[in-house]
Amino acid sequence: MTTKTTVNDREIARFSAMADEWWDPTGKFRPLHKFSPVRLGYIKEHVSAHYGRNAEDPKAFKGLRCLDIGCGGGLLCEPMTRLGAELVGVDPSPVNIEVARLHAERSGLDIDYRATRAEDLAAAGERFDFVFSMEVVEHVADVPAYLSACAEMVKPGGLMFIATINRTLKAYALAIVAAERVLRWLPAGTHSYKKLVKPSEIEGPLQESGMTIIERCGVTYNPLFDRWGRSRDMDVNYMMLASRPK
To answer: How far apart (Å, rounded) are the C-alpha atoms in residues 38 and 51?
Structure first.
């Protein structure tokens, strides 16, 4: 069982300082708001297919227990809850969790938000039908330990989703130089090139934790339509799907 800490205090402080902007679609988290439809569509499609649900059903996830690790202000937790999932949202920043909790209350949603770490949740024996960690792994202190803790919480037959940024020169040019310094989509310093994560650095720890890699999918930005979409190009943003055998 994982005992290493996965929390990077500097990263927690950085995102806590921006917490009041989580739900502003034109603020510092604008890229996440733009990216959300792609992430939601990917999760909904694969969870529905895996569990034999109708993807068009507004309560397609009813009866499924779900964990969002590094949930921030709850941008993914709320739509997952509306789909019927029993949702646990976890973030090591108490400030983020309070923002998420207040927004859920105003939205009339019952979400179990907790200010804690992935490894603590795993050690407590928590298990879920599907777990997702979107745009988080590039901010943690220990990637293998973090992935091990996440994988530990996936039930046999369950799914795990990861989204992050590849460590390539193309990613440096687009996700850091262009997005942070030129276009100002994100505050400068949001991402560190050396902390970006190659697909192999995710696959290895997950496989060592007993997970099976099902799919890898790139995500690219179309400036003409100002939207994100799935792609075969994994050089910058990408998502990965894994399962725990029954």
So the answer is: 20
116: closest CA among 32, 206, 12?
A: 12
Q: pLDDT digits over 144-190, tens only?
A: 999 999 999 999 999 999 999 999 999 999 999 988 888 887 788 88
Overall size of the chain counted in residues = 246
Res 19: pLDDT: 55
The model's pTM is 0.89
Cβ neighbours, 10 Å, residue 143? 18
| Interatomic CA distance for residues 169 and 148, integer angstroms | 27
Separation CA 142–CA 150 (nearest Å):
12
The CA-CA-CA angle for residues 7, 9, 15, to 5°, reads 100
Residue linked to tokens 């803790």 = 149
Of the candidates 130, 201, 206, the one whose C-alpha atom is nearest the C-alpha of residue 165 is: 201
Q: Answer whether residue 7 shows pLDDT above 90.
A: no
